[in-house]
From TrEMBL, chain A:
The protein's role, per its UniProt record: Subunits I and II form the functional core of the enzyme complex. Electrons originating in cytochrome c are transferred via heme a and Cu(A) to the binuclear center formed by heme a3 and Cu(B).
CDD domains (alphabetical): ba3_CcO_II_C
Primary location recorded for the protein, binned into one broad class: other
Residues annotated as domain Cytochrome oxidase subunit II copper A binding: 56-156
GO cellular component: cell envelope; membrane
Organism of this sequence: Halalkalibacillus sediminis
UniProt key word Protein transport: no
Record's protein name: Cytochrome aa3 subunit 2
Any GO MF annotation of the entry: cytochrome-c oxidase activity
Catalytic activity: 4 Fe(II)-[cytochrome c] + O2 + 8 H(+)(in) = 4 Fe(III)-[cytochrome c] + 2 H2O + 4 H(+)(out)
From TrEMBL, chain B:
Superkingdom of origin organism: Bacteria
Lineage: Bacteria, Bacillati, Bacillota, Bacilli, Bacillales
UniProt record, GO biological process: aerobic respiration
Keyword hit for tRNA-binding: no
Protein name: Cytochrome C
Length: 156, 543
């Protein structure tokens, strides 16, 4: 098959850029664990969430020097707990699950964003360097009150 | 000339498509007005109900019916009038699809299926909604059979000859569709229907989402490839040029089949239950689709340049001015191509593994697909309809309709740039998609989004004005334009293009490679989802 000379150059340049770009993404994602998208494989019985650890005690827990775990239950149309206070500079591991339908877990204006499907636990880690009032919201349609589903996160 | 009996089949599809885009567009406008808090809906209607209808009418009904109408006409134009068997199968398909559409719309209006067009489990709609969706897909199987049969008959009657390019492209698009729909058919038939009927209690949510996205991503190429058919084969003729390379055009379509199916995980990057390594593999395969996209961009601009120079354009860019800018048959698809450049760049961002986290499920995504399907594809389809409808109805597009068509296109482009632009920017600030009100009790973070939502409403209003003009022009071209002959432009390959290699028409090879890639990308993760399946979910009806 004949390929025009300029087209060859164009395709080679394009492909080389593509390979460089994908290598960057791959190296970043696989060498630093906090850069990989949330992909927790833990399963849970959605109807027994409230009696299963750690969801039997939702909320913020200190697990180390300026390190925390925030356990949250999602349910149409709210988050438990609905208000959280976090000290500035804290590294927080979010651990979330749903007891009913699919929800989204987003802290608007940050990179904290994950899908929360029933039957699975999802998790990710984020460090809050700046003070402020953050909005946690559900970004996946979960029923008629979807737009009321939010929580407050205060970094002090 | 397309035979009259075949014209009728095409036109039936176009009427449904036009009705769908009109009603869907009205709902789209309402959504934009509600989000910006300019209006509130009457209590008998809820936001998510019209959003479900908008998604289905636009993304499923308008696109699918338009595509089949266009394909029947293209195949009849290049392979001769449809055989009786093909035509009959086409009509059966049309009837089944239409019944499916009516039933779907009835279920949505009855508020029995406010689950959005992605119908994610475990929100549970009325079983008739899933059955209706299945009917739409079954209908397309009859339609696909009609076109593939016509193509196969042509090849049998013309042994050793290269098939007409546009017919080949139609078949390639349908091969993609047939492989892709396997996923959603399995999900609907084996998961959703038994579960909604109460035959089984629980559904495997992650598996249903994976099967959905196995289909949901190639679905976007099913919309796009018919636009490419017009770009590769019809636009060159309109500008009095030639097809740059027949064989590379065929190769591009085959590569789209290979690289658009085994990539659904890039819609599930933020999901639990799928390991990181498998997601990354599909990210890499997703990006492979850039290669045929680059081939397409090269071929199209090469055609433009050659044709512009043949008209006397000189210098590095002089040819550009010589293109027929005042011809809507060229202008509209060209506008679509230009918009596809930023639209494609946005797609690269969406698919980029960790970058997805910034925009996932924000209204950025909605901005992205209004640029791709809502602008690039839709405008190219508008451009096609300006000459195809009069051609099929034995009428002509007058100078006036041509000029109004250019205005219609410009208003649509303008509206889409405002609406999608606002969606992109506010999505970056975290504004979620699919959300009726985004004030969140006046939270300071949410208050930044208001101005952009006004922008969305302004853009949406332009879009709706453009749509009204479009529908008026289509009614004119179907029933009132002067009688006559409008050309169905089909370009030929350039003389210096070489013989097309036989392997490009050996479907067994390409379908075989496609399945090998799919098995590679999906077998282990799906086995995992079944073996280590999470506890299932019962249904919920939260609306
Ligand atoms: C008059 C023109 C249009 C307007 C004003 C419009 C407006 C909108 C708006 C505001 C949304 C977002 C709703 C939300 O997320 O809360 C939306 C969603 C959507 N639009 Fe459009 N749109 C138009 C045309 C189109 C076209 C031509 C297509 C495709 C062919 C399309 C396909 C979609 C889809 C698939 C969704 C997503 C539905 C969902 O998230 O479930 N729209 N549209
Ligand atoms: Cu929710
Ligand atoms: Cu929600």
């Amino acid at each position: 098959m004949h390929i025009h000379k300029f087209e060859k150059i164009w395709l080679i340049l394009g492909t080389v850029t593509l390979v460089a770009f994908l290598s960057t993404i791959g190296i970043q994602a696989f060498t630093s664990p906090d850069h990989a998208p949330p992909s927790d494989l833990t399963t849970i019985e959605p109807e027994e969430v409230e009696t299963t650890a750690p969801f039997d005690e939702p909320g913020l827990k200190k697990v180390g020097e300026n390190e925390y775990e925030l356990v949250m239950i999602l349910q149409s149309f709210g988050f438990t707990p609905g208000e959280v206070e976090i000290p500035q500079g804290a590294k927080v591991k979010f651990i979330v699950t749903s007891i009913d339908v699919v929800h989204g877990f987003e802290v608007a204006g940050t990179n904290i964003n994950m899908m929360v499907t029933p039957g699975h636990i999802n998790s990710m880690t984020y460090t809050f360097d700046e003070k402020g009032s953050f909005l946690i919201l559900c970004n996946e349609y979960c029923g008629i009150g979807h737009h009321y589903m939010s929580a407050e996160l205060e970094v002090k | 000339m397309v035979h009259q009996l075949d014209s009728r089949l095409s036109m039936a599809h176009f009427y449904v498509a036009f009705a769908a885009i009109f009603v869907g567009g009205l709902f789209g406008l309402l959504q934009a007005l509600v989000r910006s808090e300019m209006i509130t809906l009457p209590p008998s209607m809820n936001y998510y109900q019209i959003l479900t209808a908008h998604g289905i009418l636009m993304a499923i009904v308008f696109t699918t019916f338009f595509i089949f109408g266009f394909m029947y006409a293209s195949v009849a134009r290049t392979t001769g009038s449809l055989s009786n068997m093909a035509r009959k199968s086409g009509w059966i398909g049309f009837i089944i699809m239409t019944v499916g559409v009516i039933l779907t719309v009835v279920m949505i209006l009855a508020n029995e299926a406010t689950v959005l067009y992605t119908f994610y489990a475990p929100l549970q709609a009325n079983p008739l909604f899933y059955i209706a969706l299945a009917l739409i897909i079954i209908g397309t199987y009859f339609a696909s059979f009609a076109i593939i049969k016509q193509y196969a008959d042509w090849r049998k009657a013309n042994p050793g000859q290269r098939s007409p390019l546009i017919a080949f492209m139609a078949v390639a698009t349908l091969v993609l569709w047939l492989i892709a729909t396997i996923g959603v058919v399995i999900a609907v038939v084996f998961q959703f229907i038994p579960w909604s009927l109460g035959w089984v209690d629980e559904i495997n949510v992650v598996l249903s989402r994976t099967l959905f996205w196995y289909f949901g991503h190639p679905l976007v190429y099913f919309w796009l490839l018919p636009a490419y058919m017009a770009w590769y084969v019809i636009v060159p003729k309109v500008i009095k040029g030639k097809i740059f390379s027949d064989s590379l055009a065929r190769l591009a379509f085959l590569l789209f089949i290979l690289f658009s199916i085994p990539v659904g995980f890039h819609h599930q990057l933020l999901e639990s239950g799928i390991s990181h390594g498998w997601k990354f593999l599909q990210v890499v395969l997703t990006f492979a689709v850039i290669v045929p996209s680059l081939m397409t961009a090269f071929a199209l601009f090469a055609t433009f340049e050659i044709s512009g120079r043949a008209r006397g354009g000189r210098g590095l860019f002089g040819w550009f001015k010589k293109l027929p800018w005042r011809d809507v048959r060229f202008f509209a698809p060209f506008a679509g191509m230009v918009i596809f450049i930023p639209a494609g760049a946005g797609g690269i961002i969406n698919a980029s593994n960790q970058m997805n986290q910034v925009i996932h499920n924000t209204i950025w995504v909605t901005g992205h697909f209004h640029l791709t399907v809502g602008a690039t594809v839709a405008i190219t389809f508008f451009g096609i309809s300006y000459w195809l409808i009069p051609h099929l109805k034995g009428r002509v597009m007058t100078e006036r309709v041509n000029d109004l068509g250019i205005y219609q296109t410009v208003i649509w482009v303008f509206g889409m740039l405002i609406m999608s632009g606002a969606m992109h920017f506010s999505g970056l600030l975290g504004n979620p998609r699919r959300t009726q009100v985004t004030s969140y009790n006046g939270h300071e973070v949410a208050s930044q989004w208001g101005a952009y939502e006004v922008g969305m409403a302004v853009g949406g209003s332009f879009l709706f004005i453009s749509l009204i003009l479009y529908i008026i022009l289509m009614i004119n071209l179907s029933f009132f334009a002067p009688k006559g002959n409008e050309e169905f432009p089909i370009a030929e390959a350039s003389e210096n293009a070489q013989e097309t290699p036989k392997i490009l028409e050996n479907w067994k090879v390409w379908i075989g490679i496609a399945f090998a890639l799919i098995l590679f990308a999906y077998t282990i993760p799906i086995m995992d989802m079944i073996q280590h399946s999470p506890p299932g979910s019962k249904g919920f009806k939260f609306w």
